[in-house]
Write a structure and sequence with these properties.
The protein is an alpha+beta fold. It is built from four helices and seven strands, in the order E-H-H-E-E-E-H-E-H-E-E. A seven-stranded mixed beta sheet has the order 1-2-3-4-5-7-6. It is globular and about 40 Å long.
Length: 161
């Protein structure tokens, strides 16, 4: 597991696009530029898993949920695993390390919006201590279809306890 840097962007973007193609990972329809992605994610808690051939197996990062100071300890999880690495423990390793780094950075709550159809992601987050706190109905449109998302959160037992 390594910190993510700008040199990783092409592979991070490729894995993100694989998630977009599934139709169950994100509302996004295109991967952003590095500058846009970089400015919308926290500078801490950016992780990649490298294979022996230097190809990335997956990545994880956090973004702020609000610019208001009172929400400074809350972040939104993004976690993506390459198609050919799913079901191999990459996501679990990334999420475990992301939780550890988020607590070291002083974050007390991690949240995730997950499509109900993305059962693998739901299981992954629940195994990492996330619990479902709500369902946001008709949260956003994909094409002409309204989609619900489940809101999951994990409260730190270390920060803000």
């Amino acid at each position: 597991m390594d910190p993510m840097g700008p040199a990783d962007w092409d592979q991070v973007r490729e894995i993100f696009i694989q998630g977009i193609v599934t139709g169950n990972a994100t509302f996004e329809t295109q991967a952003p530029s590095w500058d846009h992605w970089d400015s919308s994610h926290l500078s801490c808690c950016r992780l990649v898993v490298r294979r022996q051939n230097a190809r990335l197996s997956g990545w994880a990062a956090l973004s702020r949920v609000s610019a208001r100071q009172v929400y400074g300890g809350i972040a939104e999880v993004s976690i993506y695993v390459a198609n050919d690495c799913r079901g191999q423990g990459v996501g679990a390793a990334l999420l475990e390390k992301l939780v550890e780094e988020s607590e070291a950075a002083g974050l007390w709550t991690l949240q995730a919006h997950i499509f109900p159809e993305n059962e693998a992601s739901l299981r992954l987050h629940q195994k990492a201590g996330f619990r479902q706190v709500g369902r946001r109905e008709r949260f956003g449109k994909m094409g002409e279809t309204w989609r619900d998302v489940l809101l999951l959160e994990r409260r730190s037992s270390v920060v803000g306890a």
